[in-house]
Amino acid sequence: MQDILDRIERDIQPYFGMGEVANYIPELAKVNPKQFAMSVATIDGEVFSCGDHSKKFSIQSISKVFVLTMAMELLQDELWNRVGREPSGTAFNSLVQLETEQGIPRNPFINAGALVTTDAINQRFTDPYNEILNFVRGLCQNPEIKFDDEVAQSEFQNSERNTALAYFMKSFGNIHSDPIKLLDIYFHHCSIAMNTEDLAKSFLFLANAGVNPLNGEEVISKLKAKRVNSLMLTSGLYDNVGDFAYRVGLPAKSGVGGGIVGVLPGEFSVAVWSPELNLSGNSLIGTKALELFTSYTEKSIF
Ligand code: GLU
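^ thats the input. predicted complex w/ glutamic acid below
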C-alpha cells in the first residue's frame, strides 16, 4: 500500500497548475495551490499516507456527510420529507430547482440540502457547534479538531448565495431556524480543519457498516451507512458525479477546500487533498489520485 501511495505522489506531479483554488471564499484563495496529501485508513486499524498528510485544510462540503449522519439519527424518515435523494445536475449553490420543487432541495449534499440538515441539528441542540465538533472528534478520535474561525468569517462576509438559499427555503417553511444563526453554524462546520489522516479515519464508520472500528461504537445502523454511501455515490461530487464514478468507482464526498474522501465498504476509507479545483469544484489532482488509486490497487465497488 505504501509503495502505491508513493507511486501516486510521483504520478500526479505533472498535473499541478491545471486547476484553480476556490476564490469565492477569500481565505481559501490564499492557500498555496502546490500541495498534495493522501491517506488510507483500513478497518483493521492501519493507516498509510504520503505527501503533506499532517497539514490541516478546510474540509468545506465534506462536513455535509457528518451533518447528514447526525440529521438522519435526529429526524429518521421524516428527514426525507424535507430533502430529496436525487442528483441535482446543477451547481452546488444553485437556486434554480428550489422554486419549482417547493423549497425541497434535491439532495443533502448541495448547499440547500446541507442547510436543511444543519437546521435539524440547530433545532435539536442548545449548542449545535459543539455537538458537531464533538461528533467529528469522536469519529476520528482526535480531540484537537477545531473550526477555523477565519475561514468561517471569510465565508460569512461573502455569503449572498447561501443567505438567499436559507431565506428562500424559509419562505417555503423548510427552514425553522433564524437564517443568520443557521448560516453561522453551516459556515463553521464547513470551516472544520482536518488533515487527510483525520479525514480518512473519520469516514471509517461508513466502510465498517456504521460501526467506528477505532472505538467499536455504532455511529449509525448498517442500513443507514449503506444509505449514506449510496447518496455519496449519486450526489457526492457536485454535478461531476458521473465522471467521477466512471473514473474512480467509489462513493465519495468532495469539498471546495480541495479534499475528497472515498469509501470502499468492508475495507478502507481514503482521503486525498490538493487545493486546485476542476471546473466543477472538485480537486483536480485529488480526482486523478483516486483514479490512479483504484486502478493500481484494483479495488473499487465495481
Ligand atoms: N462552504 C461552502 C459553500 O457553501 C461549501 C462549498 C463546497 O465545499 O462545496 O459555498
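The two ends are 20 Å apart (CA to CA).
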